């Protein structure tokens, strides 16, 4: 009976650890989108667009990881560092729920398999389901 308690508590602990918000675990906040204006447009075969946005009262320019926008067009961007920005629509928003769910299901399957192995190893032997009848001579 003690093993059932341990398996249950470990399963609940794994579920809580995987489903707790990533902010609580110390993960960085996702980048916030900023409105930017396309300054120079690049052809999609050769270059990328250049955008300009206001960062705390200071105008900044960077290369947009994309092409085909018109000059003067407003696009939502997120900064990715190293002089390159990405379109806010192309960056995933929110925590990676699918990978956390996969990890949760993997842990639960491992617990279930371990418990099944425990039952198989330590279960008492039982009589077969169909007992042979008496021989008639």
Written description of the protein model:
This protein has 137 residues and is of the alpha+beta class. The chain is 32% helix and 22% strand. Strands 1-2-3-5-4 form a 5-stranded mixed beta barrel. It is elongated and about 100 Å long. The two termini are 48 Å apart.
Sequence of secondary-structure elements: HEEEEEH
Strand percentage, roughly?
15-25%
| Distance, first to last CA | 48 Å
Radius of gyration over all CA atoms, rounded: 29 Å
Please, what is the average pLDDT?
77
Count of DSSP strands: 5
- Identify the strand order in the major beta sheet: 1-2-3-5-4
Topology of helices and strands:
Elements: H1 2-19, E1 34-40, E2 50-55, E3 58-64, E4 74-79, E5 84-87, H2 97-122
Parallel strand pairs: 3-5
Antiparallel strand pairs: 1-2, 1-4, 2-3, 4-5
Helix pairs in contact: 1-2
Produce a short descriptive summary.
The chain is 32% helix and 22% strand. The chain is built from 2 helices and 5 strands; from the N terminus they run αβββββα.
Identify the notable features of this structure and list them briefly:
2 helices, alpha+beta, 32% helix, 137 residues
């Amino acid at each position: 009976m003690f093993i059932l308690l341990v398996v249950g508590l470990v399963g609940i602990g794994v579920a809580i650890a995987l489903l707790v918000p990533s902010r609580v675990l110390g993960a960085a906040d996702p980048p916030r989108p900023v409105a930017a204006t396309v300054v120079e447009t690049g052809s999609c075969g050769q270059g990328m667009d250049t955008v300009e946005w206001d960062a705390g009262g200071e105008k900044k320019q960077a290369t947009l990881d994309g092409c085909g926008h018109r000059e003067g067009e407003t696009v939502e961007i997120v900064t990715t560092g190293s002089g390159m920005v990405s379109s806010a629509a192309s960056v995933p928003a929110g925590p990676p729920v699918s990978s956390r769910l996969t990890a949760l299901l993997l842990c639960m399957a491992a617990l279930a398999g371990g418990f099944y192995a425990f039952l198989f190893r330590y279960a008492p032997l039982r009589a077969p389901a169909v007992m042979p009848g008496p021989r008639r001579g």
